[in-house]
Amino acid sequence: MSEMVPQSHPRYASLKTREKIVEGVEGGITGFNGLIAQGRGEALDYFIGERTTSAGYDAERAAIAMLLLAEQPVLSVNGNVAALVPEEMVGLAEKIDAPLEVNIFYRTEERVQKIADLLRRFGGKRVFGEDPDTLIPGLDHARAKATREGIYNADVVLVPLEDGDRCEALVKMGKKVITVDLNPLSRTARFATITIVDNVVRALPNLVELADEMKELSREELEAIVEGYDNFDVLRRSVQEMIGYLEEQF
Amino acid sequence: MSEMVPQSHPRYASLKTREKIVEGVEGGITGFNGLIAQGRGEALDYFIGERTTSAGYDAERAAIAMLLLAEQPVLSVNGNVAALVPEEMVGLAEKIDAPLEVNIFYRTEERVQKIADLLRRFGGKRVFGEDPDTLIPGLDHARAKATREGIYNADVVLVPLEDGDRCEALVKMGKKVITVDLNPLSRTARFATITIVDNVVRALPNLVELADEMKELSREELEAIVEGYDNFDVLRRSVQEMIGYLEEQF
């Protein structure tokens, strides 16, 4: 199963997603720049047909294999992720036995608090981010804040919708970085170890489902999935999806 | 001159544009959905290289020819246009002797008032929108509001960043509709008489400059430009630009 069925109501899904982001802004969880990021995602999602492509699904499988193999996996949550898929992030954290860390681009203590509270309301048990105790090297102070028990000492980090500089800084620390990014040409997409070119509202439910399916696999089977994975090829196929979509139009 | 020089600092320009939209929201001129629209535009602009393409420039020339030939041209201004190019809209209105009409998607009287005031501060003389006296057929009430002296009786309307339904409704009224839309596949792009696939922050300065250059042309010369214009071809070339950009990446 490496080809997902197209969603039956893509326009409805897109509008519902937009509503959630606007609610996130109104609730103080998402920043204005999160709305702009959402718009960029909408345009790009359109170009991959608003569905999980086979390249996206392959990346999702490799991501779960890598998270299940990790010694200290951590899931990072920013304002858009919190607005769109808080429940799924908590669910995934539980299934792979990982903590969550709130990690936002335009940091305010109030927003960090609100996001952490939201994750706890959805059942998040280990939620970091409110009391950072260290800095990620190579970033300016406000954006470098991290927690030793969380992202700082993790070996594998899932950071959906991450900024290019921060993705690069995590990779330079020697971590394996899994991201979700609809732009296969972005700096984040190119720096990450695994780039899931998919809408976060489809990717996270897929990841939760895959975690259930794949937890029975042996260590050797998981390792084979990770070793067989080629991120460059996945990015190339994602760009090819977009070209194919555009070529069909005229 | 049908090929524009690439901007020398595209990333700077993009970030500055984003800032203006955020200021628009903070000042009550732009709605939250305007931020999302800005994000969609950013992603699409990236795919045409963040510069005016030759297709875009051809559409801009045809637009000015059509506006100069018009009997009752009107320029429509929404929240994003007001945040990004208020001065240029007022300048263009003066050069082609056209009124401006505030015409926003999520109408509130307060926002209409603020946009009208802004346009007057920039020197706008005939600004409509605060006292609509009629309805555009085929739209629901809040979105149908229009002014007889403005859009309702216009023969040519420039409506940058317009919604698909409203673009269609104006075309059905028999108007010639010129739009600025970075998505060559959008319903607006396909319905409009002339679709300028360009960023509004580049298109408007170009239009102002072209109005100066072209106002010396004879009626016959202007008519020849309009008759030689092929919107389908311009959309096709714009999509081809995007495909070319994507193909270069891998």
What descriptive keywords fit this protein?
homodimer, 250 residues, alpha/beta, six-stranded parallel beta sheet, two-stranded antiparallel sheet, 12 helices, disordered N terminus
Tell me briefly what this model is.
Two copies of one chain form a homodimer. Chain A is of the alpha/beta class. The first copy, chain A, is built from twelve helices and eight strands.
Describe the protein's architecture and organization:
The structure is a homodimer of 250-residue chains. With 250 residues, the first copy, chain A, is an alpha/beta fold. Helices cover 56% and strands 10% of the residues of chain A. Chain A is built from 12 helices and 8 strands. Chain A has helices at residues 10-26, 32-47, 54-69, 79-84, 86-95, 109-121, 141-144, 164-172, 187-191, 200-214, 219-227, 231-249; strands at residues 73-77, 100-102, 127-128, 134-135, 145-146, 156-158, 176-180, 194-196. In chain A, the strands form 2 sheets. Chain A has a 6-stranded parallel beta sheet with strand order 3-2-1-6-7-8, with helices on both faces. Chain A has a two-stranded antiparallel ribbon with strand order 4-5. In chain A, helix 6 (109-121) links the parallel strand 2 and strand 3. In chain A, helix 1 (10-26) runs antiparallel to helix 2 (32-47). The longest helix of chain A has 19 residues, at 231-249. The radius of gyration of chain A is 17 Å and the shape is globular. The model of chain A is unreliable at 1-6 (pLDDT under 50). The interface between A and B is medium-sized, with 29 and 29 residues.
